[in-house]
Amino acid sequence: MSCITNDLLIALLRDVVAENRARNREAILQDVWSPLTTLEEIGFDSLDLVELVFMIEDRFSVDIGFNANTNINDVKTIDDLRRAIDNLLADSRAA
Length: 95
Known about the structure:
By secondary structure, this protein is mostly helical. It has helices at residues 6-19, 26-30, 46-60, 78-94.
């Protein structure tokens, strides 16, 4: 079973994008996002990813063990990111 839903992840992604308003991404917040929306379309980058990881760790009270060696090269869409986060959460709970 999935630890994080697409709807929850989209809400968290919107929070990350909104918190970084200095990067002029307000228009992106008006768009409709779906699991198939690409991270490129929402201007999501590695700094946003780090912030998202911290949010998820706080929300789920876990250390998901994300670091620079974590392979996210195959993550292109919001759903890809959700699956990657689910895997990291599962790994952290198994440890």
